Automatic annotation (TrEMBL):
GO terms for molecular function: cytochrome-c peroxidase activity; electron transfer activity; heme binding; metal ion binding. Keywords: Heme, Iron, Metal-binding, Signal. The keyword Nucleotide-binding does not apply. This is C-type cytochrome. The keyword Heme applies. PANTHER family: CYTOCHROME C DOMAIN-CONTAINING PROTEIN, CYTOCHROME C PEROXIDASE-RELATED. Transmembrane segments: none annotated. Residues 1-20 form the signal peptide.
Length: 503
């Protein structure tokens, strides 16, 4: 181990080090290990596509017609029993929950405060959501742009409490962890979100300047009095769903190796650590825009609780994000049915939703052999986009589910946190992520974003209306990569975008 990597680890108090110090990837034989190293090495020639490059989601990749359902297929290698579960989970992902009491007892318990009635209202057709400011037609009873609320994390005591509660941010004392613009009948909603944009021109070599949209947020019609004066807002747009089970099956050693790498390119990814509810130990975070959540199952249970106000074994409070200071909310009826169990969403249903969310297939790439796409891929490497958007992995041999085991995948992410500069900073800490850090999002499927949801936009708060705008917002550790894109000729930029569109 390099001494400075060891020091960085001590400073970050990284309890996962013990695992990283063992021979890397205990799941692999020596022979496997050299094979894996060979197939995951960065590309060195760009005259033709690499082997298996089109199958970016491994054996689970779908090769279906490109239409708005392209993100909604089960992984191609999912077995029969898995497909049955996937179908039921699909129904639960799409289902509109209603408030209690109601005649449809198995679907009630919504709220009392909520952001949407169904998972799919935000993850539109299993793709990303759209921002109200850009999509006036957004479903009237859903806002796919969540506003997380947080107080600055200064007190040691507050941090301890957070850790024990398995939560990663200090909530507003009245409004809780997130702002909920909707409530069941008879209860005031928390208020309204107003978004305004300021245009920022950015010069580009050889063509007219691009125009970036910098958002600001205002909360109006507050239903429960003023917020804490120090409250900060972290806007988060619903991300796309394909390939999540494969991301969960990437070995932690591979992620930590990228964090520890001595690189000399100004890029230094950091892991976010979460508390393992089973053991109380630390576990690597990988999901959500700040990599704060360790698993798809936990993020899904958190969504039922925080976004829809539905209890489950992991988040057993029937009132979701209603705080003790929202008494009227806590006095409303809830939807747990004694004959179905103690929770509004019983464990068995939770598992089915998780199986669904773990097995949405990554679509096959298009045009991998096209000369312009290959030129764009070369530029993607040359601009060092791969410093964070790490192209390939081979998933663990011992992954939980057989369909996720030992797959060569191409997600273009390191699942690590990076300082992305002041332009993208939200000023909100989450777990070990700072107010300037974001997790590198996977890029697979990104070229099909608008096929699935024509109103979808990019980045954590959906401020980027095009892939080029998303790149031009990169700052901090990614400033050098972004400047290389600005300096490209218009034809080169078009090639780079064409490569992204082929993903
Ligand atoms: C109100 C909109 C909304 C609803 C409803 C919603 N989500 Fe999400 N979802 C989000 C947002 C926003 C994020 C990113 C969260 C963050 O960064 O904190 C997210 C993230 C996720 C992720 C992690 C994806 C990743 O790449 O990191 C999963 C899995 C997920 N949601 C599943 C679900 C499931 C299952 C449901 C229904 C039970 C659901 N979501 C309902 C908005 C929503
Ligand atoms: C230092 C790490 C880093 C480098 C280098 C980097 N990115 Fe990113 N990229 C990120 C992070 C982190 C985000 C998410 C930022 C946010 O949402 O605020 C992101 C977001 C994106 C997005 C939008 C993804 C989405 O789902 O909305 C695209 C497209 C993208 N990057 C392309 C590129 C390209 C092309 C390059 C090279 C020119 C590049 N990136 C270089 C870290 C990096």
């Amino acid at each position: 181990m390099h001494p400075s990597a060891f020091l960085a680890c001590l400073l970050a108090a990284c309890a996962g080090w013990a695992a990283a110090a063992e021979p890397p990837r205990a799941d692999l034989s020596d022979e496997d290990r050299s094979r894996v190293r060979r197939v995951t090495a960065p590309a060195t020639q760009f005259e033709r596509a690499e082997s298996f490059e089109a199958m970016q989601g491994g054996a689970g990749t779908v090769r279906k017609l490109i239409n708005p359902d392209i993100f909604s297929h089960p992984a191609a290698n999912l077995d029969f029993a898995g497909r049955q579960d996937f179908m039921v989970g699909n129904g639960l992902f799409r289902k509109d929950w209603v408030s209690s009491p109601s005649s449809t007892q198995a679907s009630d318990g919504l709220g009392p405060l909520f952001n949407a009635r169904s998972c799919q209202a935000c993850h539109v057709k299993d793709g990303r959501g759209s921002v109200p400011g850009f999509d006036p037609l957004q479903q009237a009873d859903a806002v796919a742009l969540l506003l997380r609320l947080s107080l600055p994390d200064t007190a040691q005591e507050a941090r301890e409490r957070l850790k024990n509660a398995g939560r990663r941010m200090i909530p507003d004392p009245v409004y809780g962890h997130q702002f909920q613009p909707f409530a069941v009948a008879g209860l005031p909603a928390e208020g309204e979100i107003r978004i305004s944009y300021r245009e920022i021109p950015v010069d580009l070599n050889g063509e007219a300047p691009a125009s970036l949209m910098a958002p600001s947020y205002e909360l109006g019609k507050l239903g429960y009095g003023p917020m804490h004066p120090d409250v900060r807002i972290s806007p988060r747009l619903a991300p796309p769903m394909p390939g999540l089970g494969l991301l969960e099956a990437i070995h932690p050693d591979d992620i930590l190796a990228n964090a520890a790498a001595e690189r000399g390119d100004g890029i230094s990814g950091r892991p976010n650590w979460a508390v393992d509810p089973g053991t109380g130990g630390r576990i690597l975070g990988r999901f959500n825009w700040k990599a704060a959540e360790p698993s798809v199952a936990r993020q899904s249970a958190k969504a039922f609780s925080g976004d829809m106000g539905l209890s489950s074994p992991l988040f057993p409070d029937h009132y979701g994000d209603c705080t003790p200071l929202q008494q009227a909310c806590r006095a409303m009826p809830h939807g747990a049915q004694p004959h179905l169990g103690e929770h509004e969403v019983p464990g068995r249903l939770m598992d089915l939703v998780a199986i669904y969310a773990l097995n949405l297939a990554v679509p096959q790439r298009r045009e991998v052999d096209d000369a312009r796409v290959l030129a764009g891929k070369k530029l993607f490497y040359e601009a060092n986009c791969i410093g964070c958007h790490v192209p390939k992995y081979v998933t663990r041999r011992d992954a939980d589910r057989p369909e996720h085991r030992f797959q060569l995948i191409w997600p273009y992410t390191d699942l690590l946190l990076h300082d992305m500069g002041p332009g993208l900073a939200d000023g909100v800490e989450e777990g070990e992520a700072s107010g300037r850090e974001w997790r590198t999002p996977p890029l697979w499927g990104i070229g099909l974003t608008k096929v699935v949801n024509p109103a979808a936009t990019w980045l954590h708060d959906g401020r980027a209306r095009s892939l080029l705008e998303a790149i031009l917002w990169h700052g901090g550790e990614a400033q050098a990569a972004r400047d290389r894109v600005r300096a490209m000729t218009p034809a080169q930029r078009a090639d780079l975008i064409r490569f992204l569109e082929s993903l």
